[in-house]
Amino acid sequence: MNLTKFRPTRSELLPGQKRLSPGSVVADVGLIGWFLFSLFPIAWMVILALKNAEEQTTTYFQFSPTWSNFATVLSDKGTQMTSVDFKAALLTSLLNCGGAVIVSLVIGIPAAYAAGRWKYKGSNDLMFQMLSFRFAPELMVIVPLFVIYNQIGLFDTKVGMIWVLQLVTMPLVVWILRSYFEDLPADLEQAALLDGYTRTRAFVMVALPIVRPGIAAAALLAFIFAWNNYVFPLILADSNAGTVTVAITKFLGGGGQAYYNLTAAAAIIAALPPLILALTIQRYLVRGLSFGAVKA
Amino acid sequence: MATVGLNGISMSYGKTRAVHDLSVDIADGEFFVILGPSGAGKTTTLKSIAGLVDIDAGTVAIGSNDVTQVEPYHRNVAMAFESYALYPQKTVSENLASPLKSGRTGKYTDAQRAERIDQVTTTLGINALLNRFPRELSNGQRQRVALGRVLVRPADVYLLDEPLSHLDAKLRAAMRAELKQLGAMSKTTTVYVTHDYQEALALGDRIAVLREGSLVQIGTPEEIWRRPADTFVARALGQPEINILDGVVDDGRVRLGGNSGAFDLPLPADVRRSTGDRVRVGLRPCDIHVVAGDSTSARLTGTVRLAERLGRNVELTVDVGGEQLIVLSSGREGVDEGSRVSMTVADKDVHVFGAGDGDTARLGAEQSLEAAL
Q1: Are the C-beta atoms of B348 and B265 separated by less than 8 Å?
Q2: What's the pLDDT score for residue A293?
Q3: pLDDT at B373
Q4: Chosen domain end from B217, B236, B255
Q5: Which residues in chain A touch residue B81, judged by CB atoms under 8 angstroms apart?
Q6: CATH (domain of A139)
């Protein structure tokens, strides 16, 4: 996702004011150039996905657009070509990533709350320990993980995938939400305690609703990161728990022909769920619910 | 309703000492004010009564129960926070209903709840705001809602943390008067934290002055004002600040005005210091009375260096034998910058403190401090 898109441009900041200095023209041209440059891979992918097999390797802009690639990817024909059911992989991805995000939220929200509220000797070290899972390249741990997963029977299971994806999603959820809980004035929960509520109820009643935008943001990011993960499903899963990221690459062909147009179509289909999710929860992403909670 | 007893409580945030060995007994139904500058440990003291901070040492008792290890929600205290701490996602009426819905402040039917809320909002004049969210309120309105959330419920102790500090001056004065008249406040033990000496003197049955986490003086407003325990308390109360002058005892009088000893005042009888001892003398600007022209009864004479009109008073800076004295006058004496003035000070308004650079203790009979404790 291209986040720079959401930054307000100069003309949005100054409605009705159009300054035409040489500098601004140069800046605008530069920005448009950068915009086209950034968008090019996506445009290329879309174009490629609309081409038929004969035109897929041509580089000039002349082709007869067809939707058939999308149909092929999702049909039995595609399954026969790659020996992977793309629809099933799509569903598996949804289950794996959805499951991983839910587990991360269930465990990570209380963890982030505790980390944000209670400081003790070594609490920061613990947080960095968790973050270090993100620093370390996945390839570094993948071989021992593969051995362990084979031994305890988690290889190619959805439970195993959800578990290993915690390495990706949990640090994100905990770190993002910790900062939200740190920003939340402790007075609010203390007021709830004195109103006669237990710590758990104060947390659920007061803290949780206020950090809801943060939870939405963390969940979305975690979902995207889990969705895009390639190495873990590649090594730790096969036909049962294989995800869409691995399934896409099957269209590049193992030994026979490479189907670039089908690959592009598959990639576009695979990009849709995170996009739809982002649009759905967009309104929850807006911060500022806690604005005015404490003195202005 | 209950007494509150703090016995030797101490509390630190890391290496920072917030409260040190503080012991206070608050009577049933008393309006008790804790006064001190920021960082004196006032809020920490309040929160240790509420159970919101874990104290390192000492005990807290409410009524006859030791509540040191009791969770906040079992202590039956209500608190108004300095930050108001209104739930942002709830309306005013939901905020006010919150303590009544927890089940730990008594059981209420919907009708009973509505009635209590109605009573409180009528008293505080926030009837029209019930369906608003905290973000849609002014600071004065938020403060009233926060106070309402305290008053709406029965509690053994009310804890109020600087409830008026974010209001503008006029509203603050009005709310101060209102607070004093609230029936619930006069019946329930209330601990009120403030850094404003006027609020403390106006509201408190008794005042405890804190400095750097330690109790400096405790007593009625009259005692604190008339017999400050040391120069810190003397300086903390009163605007403009008390004049503190270095002096030397000379045969039952104190010579002031530097080495020349340009003027003197009688040494209070209960100060046992002999000739040659160094002391400090405190004179409140409002206790120095300007007498027009030269008067035989006048004790001090000086030249006005600066005259500033501050509303109903004129603040004079008077040069008396080389010392700059701040004097509050009514402004009717017709004195102006450069004019000579005579001033009188009553014997009882002469405060004598030990010599030294930092805060020094009051000299004289200590019985006022002992009696208050």
Answers
A1: no
A2: 39
A3: 41
A4: B236
A5: 187, 190-191
A6: 1.10.3720.10
Distance, in angstroms, between B53 CA and closest chain A CA?
10
Q: Looking at the structure, do residues A8 and A40 belong to the same domain, yes or no?
A: yes
Q: How far is the C-alpha of B329 from the C-alpha of B333, rounded, in Å?
A: 8
| Average pLDDT value for chain B | 88
Gap from A292 CA to chain B (nearest CA, Å): 4
Q: How confident is the model at residue A102 (pLDDT cuts 50, 70, 90)?
A: very high
Same-domain status, B250 and B226: no
Comparing A273 with A7, the larger pLDDT belongs to: A273
With CA atoms as reference, the chain B residue closest to A188 would be B85
User: What CA–CA distance (Å, rounded) separates B99 from B101?
Assistant: 6
Q: Which domain holds residue A16?
A: 3-73
In a domain, A293, yes or no: no
Residues B88 and B178 in one domain: yes
Q: Nearest residue of A to residue B14 by CA position?
A: A120
pTM of the model: 0.80
A–B interface: beta-carbon pairs under 8 A? 85
**Pair (A199, A221) in one structural domain:** yes
Same domain membership, residue B265 and residue B139: no
Higher per-residue confidence, A6 vs A204? A204
Is some CB atom of chain B closer than 8 A to the CB atom of A124?
no
**For B97, which residue in chain A has the nearest alpha carbon?**
A195
CB of A139 closer than 8 Å to CB of A231? yes
The more confidently predicted of residues B166 and B20 is B20
C-alpha distances out from residue B234 to A205, A246, B226, B317, Å = 46, 78, 9, 19
Higher per-residue pLDDT: B22 or B333:
B22
State the residue range of the domain holding B287: 243-365
